[in-house]
Design a protein that fits this description.
The protein is an alpha+beta fold. Among the domains are: 332 residues, no CATH class; 52 residues, no CATH class; 108 residues, OB fold (Dihydrolipoamide Acetyltransferase, E2P). The strands form eight sheets. Strands 8, 9, 10, 11, 14 and 15 form a six-stranded mixed beta sheet that branches. A five-stranded mixed barrel has the order 3-4-5-7-6. A five-stranded antiparallel beta sheet has the order 22-21-20-26-27. A hairpin with a 2-residue loop joins strand 1 and strand 2. Helix 2 runs antiparallel to helix 14 and helix 7 crosses helix 8. The protein is globular and about 75 Å long. It starts with 6 loop residues before the first strand and ends in a 14-residue tail after the last strand.
């Protein structure tokens, strides 16, 4: 019997409503662990699973072995018996006792344990990190160009602790500026197959959750000797970009170097400085304003050029969880990340030069026909584009399928969408049509960036493929007699091994993305748990066969209106025009409609916010465009919601204090190493002989997140 996320083989046949099928064989299990609450009744002990799909299909989960957890304890369970024909029971053994149900700290521990994300570093990796000198010595400077006299600065989020990259701009020899992109030289400290390298392969990427960062490398390296901290000498790999007066890239150079960053700037500060705001602590930006203006001018030229070649602008808003500064278990708000257009422009300034450096290093390998690890974003699947064309066509957006299989053609679709009030919701449809970006040794190009020579070079502190690219670049620089920093004269691993490392890193990136997404969903639910019965304004973000998703603006959360909460009549789902219509009244809700909704129910454990439709939408079924600018929605009083937030935070403090008093004494171990077979998404499986190999998904709503570049 299959579970959600399993890879299975199925038989298929034509059905009345489309293709039907039957699972013939489970090829690989998609999950190895469950979380839930221990329940006891007399001698009977079982797990009440958090996942409603498991609960609906199997009810109680049996528990084997010793049971250290008391009734009501939240635990992580390793599955020991999967359902089989004739034995449909699901069972497991307790791996770890966590904490109080519904506590954000407990929920984060659940997410990490189920994802199999390692927390603690093994002793060998810690020992190697501790043995690494905190400062550079003479031998570290060998075979490097000295750029310590250049004015480098880092530009990062305000809370950043590790600094991968730094920028320097100066007059160039071809009429335009010369830009140096310096990137932390992690490969100088982490060599092939040493203890730190082995652990970095296991982690793949750093994981960024609202309450913590789980680094790929120990902090002594990631925030210490590798990080381009201000006013200290650091090893770096640099790319030199020489531009003409019109912004055309004329010449590039590559080298190992030593630099000294002279400024630690952040995005809000850069945004303010570019607007002429030097108040308070921003006074220090005054000495950087000329460089910042030059970087910004050139970045805008580069951005226009990328857009002209077909690069897609899918920077859809993402939620940012705001936690209490004194107690990260308290949720203050959920807002839009990069919500300020000026701060977004500061992000784009840095992004343009990171893309330029990544492409420049990609060309280095392409020109030498040399093996490397590329960041690839394949063309979208034709069937998906045809499906998108059908949906968007019904919503008033013309899609040329053949053209949309090219970046410039897909950009034309997005340009049409941008003119509609429902642009954000429609852009999500395009996003779900695109392939997922991965790492690979086969250079198929990057569709979203409209680039044929794209890889990841600029973040080796937090991404393993970038570290691989640095090592391969050093090998070729050494062969050509250029400054390489030493240590990589021997040939690198085979292409097969590099492909394996790229695949593993892609899997771990998806694991991290899923954990990050689930953590944000948990905090969103936690923030709204005391708002049941309150009303909010929102916009329909997705319409499915089981309900309507609505995105609230303030706070920035998303909830589901199930069909039974739409009204006291049956509703029909139109999967072409993406709307639901009441059979009796003709009331209609379409993608992009503005609604007023009520918070009906919240489950922190299931990351669920259920809503009830109050007002908005169409009064009768008409030709839908997905636009609903004519329908006003009334939201709650901001002051009233502010009072509720404050009251909720006080309740948080009381609950946490009570939980701490109850849990005095031996605490459950907070960390654990583990593995999990993660379910992945990708293009539709190939059909062969009436059989399909695919992954089971019991999720009703298609996923979608912008491809990471």
């Amino acid at each position: 019997t299959s579970l959600d996320g399993d890879q299975v083989r199925v038989s298929t046949w034509p059905g009345v409503k489309g293709t039907e099928g039957r699972v013939e064989e489970v090829l690989a299990r998609g999950r190895a662990r469950l979380t839930g609450v221990v329940r006891r009744s007399g001698r009977a002990v079982w797990l009440e699973p958090d996942d409603p799909r498991i609960a609906a299909d199997y009810g109680r989960v049996g528990l084997d072995g010793q049971l250290p957890a008391a009734d009501g304890s939240v635990v992580v369970v390793e599955i020991t018996r999967y359902p089989q024909p004739g034995a449909p029971e699901l069972a497991g053994r307790v791996l770890k006792v966590l904490g109080e149900p519904g506590d954000p700290a407990t929920e984060i521990e659940k997410i990490l344990a189920c994802a199999g994300i390692p927390i603690e570093f093994p002793d060998a990796a810690v020992a190697q990190a501790e043995a690494t000198p905190a400062e550079l010595v003479a031998k570290d400077l060998a075979d490097r160009i000295d750029l310590r006299d250049r004015r480098f600065c880092t530009i990062d989020p305000e809370t950043a602790r590790d600094f991968d990259d730094a920028l320097c701009i100066e007059a160039g020899p071809h009429g335009g500026p010369r830009v140096w992109v310096a990137v932390a030289d992690v490969s100088h400290y982490v060599r092939w197959s040493d203890a730190l390298d082995r652990e970095a392969v296991i982690r793949g990427v750093s994981v960024y959750l609202p309450d913590r960062m789980i680094p790929m490398l120990p902090l002594r390296l990631s925030s210490g000797v590798c990080s381009l901290n201000p006013n200290v000498d650091r090893c770096a790999m640099v790319v030199r970009l020489d531009y003409a007066t019109d912004g055309t890239l004329v010449k590039t150079g590559y080298a190992a170097a030593v630099i000294r960053s002279q400024g630690r700037l952040d995005y809000p500060g850069v945004a303010a400085a570019l607007q002429g705001d030097f108040r308070g602590r921003r006074e220090v930006y005054r000495e950087w304003i000329e460089e910042l203006r030059e970087l910004d001018r050139l970045a805008q030229v580069l951005r226009v050029g990328r857009r002209a070649r077909g690069a897609l602008d899918l920077e859809l808003p993402e939620p940012k969880v705001v936690l209490d500064a004194d107690d990260p278990r308290l949720v203050r708000d959920v807002v839009k990340a990069k919500g300020d257009p000026q701060v977004k422009r500061a992000y784009e300034l840095v992004e343009e030069f990171m893309i330029a450096a990544n492409e420049a290093v990609g060309r280095f390998f392409r020109q030498r026909d040399a093996t490397t690890v590329w960041r690839v974003h394949a063309l979208p699947d034709r069937e998906r584009v045809e499906s998108l064309a059908g949906v968007l066509g019904a919503l008033g957006v013309k899609v040329d399928v053949e053209a949309a299989l090219t970046p410039i053609g897909m950009k034309a679709v997005l340009d049409q969408i941008a003119e509609k009030p429902s642009a954000r919701a429609l852009s999500f449809l395009v996003l779900r049509t695109l392939s997922q970006a991965v790492w690979d040794t086969v250079p198929v190009g990057h569709f979203g960036l409209a680039s044929g020579d794209y890889l990841h070079f600029t973040s080796p502190i937090r991404r393993y493929p970038d570290l691989l690219v640095h090592r391969l670049l050093k090998y070729h620089l050494h062969r050509e007699g250029q400054a390489s920093g030493g240590g990589y004269a021997a040939p690198p691993p085979s292409e097969d091994r590099l492909a394996e490392l790229a695949h593993v890193s892609s899997t771990h990136e998806r694991r991290a993305m899923e954990a990050e997404r689930e953590a944000v969903s948990m905090y969103r639910a936690y923030l709204m748990r005391d708002q049941i019965g309150e009303t909010f304004a929102g916009v329909v973000s997705a319409v499915t066969s089981f309900g309507v998703f609505v995105e609230l603006e303030d706070p920035y959360v998303e909830g589901l209106i199930k069909f039974d909460a739409l009204g006291d009549e049956p509703f029909d789902f139109d999967d072409v025009q993406l709307r639901v219509t009441g059979r009796r009244t003709g009331r209609c809700v379409s993608l992009g409609d503005k609604l007023t909704v009520e918070i009906l129910d919240v489950s922190v454990g299931q990351r669920r916010i259920q809503l009830k439709w109050l007002e908005g939408g169409s009064k009768r079924a008409v030709a839908a465009t997905g636009d609903a600018s004519a329908y006003a929605a009334v939201g709650p009083s901001e002051r009233a919601f502010g009072r509720r937030r404050k009251a909720g935070r006080e309740l948080d403090r009381v609950q946490i204090d009570q939980a701490e008093r109850r849990s005095r004494g031996p605490r459950a171990e907070r960390t654990e190493r583990g593995t999990r077979a993660a379910s992945t998404s990708g293009p539709a499986p190939a059909r062969a002989g009436g059989k399909l190999a695919l992954r089971v998904s019991h999720r009703g709503r298609p996923g979608g997140k912008k491809p990471k570049r």
